């Protein structure tokens, strides 16, 4: 993990903690990471704007995916993703 920027490591640690404590029914998460050049990087918005406060929400797998994507948006352009596929 020493080759990844700190944001990637904290993201992976957060996902692992969520799986262990809050979403025990999730058995597996697949993550693929690719480091991109500076010109391909996208600015990551402030995650605090997505904070739901203390309200209680019904959580589904889709909801978890959406929250993770908003908190840690994919920094790859569509073209880079298409080329990788």
From TrEMBL:
It holds the Pfam family HTH_69. Residues 50-85 form the Winged helix-turn-helix domain. It comes from the Eukaryota. InterPro entries: HTH_69. PANTHER family: AGAP000321-PA (PTHR47705), PNP_UDP_1 DOMAIN-CONTAINING PROTEIN (PTHR47705:SF1). This is Winged helix-turn-helix domain-containing protein. It comes from Strongylus vulgaris (Blood worm).
């Amino acid at each position: 993990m020493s080759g990844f920027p700190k944001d990637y490591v904290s993201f992976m640690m957060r996902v692992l903690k969520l799986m262990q404590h809050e979403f025990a029914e999730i058995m597996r998460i697949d993550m693929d990471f690719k480091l991109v050049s500076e010109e391909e990087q996208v600015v990551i918005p402030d995650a605090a704007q997505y904070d739901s406060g203390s309200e209680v929400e019904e959580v589904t797998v889709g909801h978890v995916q959406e929250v993770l994507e908003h908190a840690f948006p994919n920094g790859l352009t569509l073209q880079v993703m298409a080329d990788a596929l």
